Structures are given as C-alpha cells and as structure tokens.
Amino acid sequence: MASLSHHLSSLLLLLNLLDAATNGDSVKPAILACRSFDCGNGQIIGYPFWQQGNQDEHCGYPGFAVSCYGQQPLLHLFDHLYQVKKISYPENTLIATFRDLSDGSKCPMAPHDVNLNSSPFLNYTTGVKMVKCFYNCTLYPPSLPDIECLRYGLKRSYAFMEGAIPEFDWRKYCESTMRVPVAVKTGNRRDGLSGDDFGRALKEGFELTWRSPESGCRSCEASGGFCGFGNGPNQKPFCFCNDGKRYDVCSDKGDVTLAFEPDFIAIGEHLLPF
C-alpha cells in the first residue's frame, strides 16, 4: 500500500497537469519524462529522438539518442557523434554533419566513415551520394586531378563518386580510405571532386530519413501515441498514451488494459502511478 504522502504527491502532480490542460497543453502523464528539449540554439528536438543522459531510451527509437554539448545537438551514430543541423518532422528527415572536421578551412578532411548500423530505422535520402576518399597516396595515376589543398609533400589525396572510381590499387598506395555521404550539388565530375566542392559538401552535411518501426509502432502513432522501446533488442515496443503505457494502441475511452506498472491510482480520466 502506497503511503499517504505518495498519494498526495500524485494528486499534486495531477492538479499541475490539469492546470496545464486549461492553458491548452496536452495532458500526458505517462510521457512527462519524454518531453521535447532544446540544446540552447532554438531547435526543438523531440520524439522519435530522445536526450542522452536526461531521458530514458524508451522515449524514442533505438539509435536516436541526441546529446547537448554546449548549444550543439549531437546525434549518436554507431561510435561517433554528428552535429544535427536541421530536423524536419513533417518530412521525417534531418541534416547531419561531422562534429569535428580535421581542418576548419574550406578544405576539411573527413575524419572517419559514416555507419548507420546503430539504428535500423535510419537511411540516406535519395539526394545523398556516397564518396570514396583516398588520403595521402604515395603513388597515383598522374592524369587524375587531386584535392590540391590536401597535398603533403609528394603525397596526394583524392575523392571520387562511388561508381566512378578509376581502376588503381588505391588501398596499397594510400594511407587511409574513407566512405562518406555528401549532398553533392556541384562539381560532381566523373573524374573526381575538387577541394572546394568536397570541403563544401562535407560542411553542408548529409540528409537522413527515418521510418516508423513496423512492429506495432505505426498503429500506436496513428492512434495519437508514441512508441517506446525498453532495454534489450528483442523487447516488444509499448505505446505511450495520455492515460498510460500500453502494448496496444491509445484509446480515448481508456478501455485498453494496461500492460505496464499495474499499481495505478485512477483520478478522473487519468492514471497516475504510485
């Protein structure tokens, strides 16, 4: 049996929520901990993204964790962080760029590959092109234009669109290779990318799109809730609703049986845990 003070705390929480409702705010006790957030740059970030360190991962999709570093929102993708430049919720897209480019000038160098394996719900948009970079090559075809601003002694660096890489043993004679996505608008010549074009493309970033998980989430979202995942890759997602968490869809009448946290106190039309 919950203590009287705990019940009183729940009642005070309900009164605060009802006060918010009279001012036009949505009353969602079950998702208060998953509110949208702002890193300080005016960009509001919310579901299906969740804030690393301040929110539980069930507040959004797996692999959609965002951290605030200063006023900079950073997306966690695999083992790296990427700056989130823009999110379009109506289009389900976001623009991300490398957090730290090796050179702050107009001729930066991609620091690593981009890997989307951290989330099965993210993919590149059709406007993104994959570029293969070959850095500090000691031997190279003499007729190919290199990225001039990345020259280091006799070493040369190159960037080619995938599908247009000249035949050569690049891995043998180049110190490193990178595969990066860019939104190339100009300079996408078949023989390579110029330093200015490549540097500009890296800074502008690349566009990603996300899709709702098919396993129960689409029906949950269509009913006005949002989908949350617990710990573990095989756990069934649940649905956050105005009146609690469910394995099913949301219901204004509250006639769906709750599947989580069975100890609830019913006050009015809302359910509060105790």
Automatic annotation (TrEMBL):
Q: Would you tell me the Gene Ontology cellular component terms?
A: membrane
Name the reaction it catalyses.
L-seryl-[protein] + ATP = O-phospho-L-seryl-[protein] + ADP + H(+); L-threonyl-[protein] + ATP = O-phospho-L-threonyl-[protein] + ADP + H(+)
| Any GO MF annotation of the entry | protein serine/threonine kinase activity
- State if Signal is listed as a keyword: yes
Position of the signal peptide: 1-24
E.C. no: 2.7.11.1
Q: Where in the cell is it found?
A: Membrane
Q: Which UniProt keywords apply?
A: Glycoprotein, Signal
How does the protein's chain sit in the membrane according to the entry? Single-pass membrane protein
Give every Wall-associated receptor kinase galacturonan-binding domain span.
Answer: 34-94
One Pfam annotation reads GUB_WAK_bind
Chief localization class? Answer: membrane
Domain named Wall-associated receptor kinase C-terminal is located at 156-244
| PANTHER family, per database record | OS01G0690200 PROTEIN, WALL-ASSOCIATED RECEPTOR KINASE GALACTURONAN-BINDING DOMAIN-CONTAINING PROTEIN
- This one is known as non-specific serine/threonine protein kinase
Q: Give the classification, highest ranks.
A: Eukaryota, Viridiplantae, Streptophyta, Embryophyta, Tracheophyta
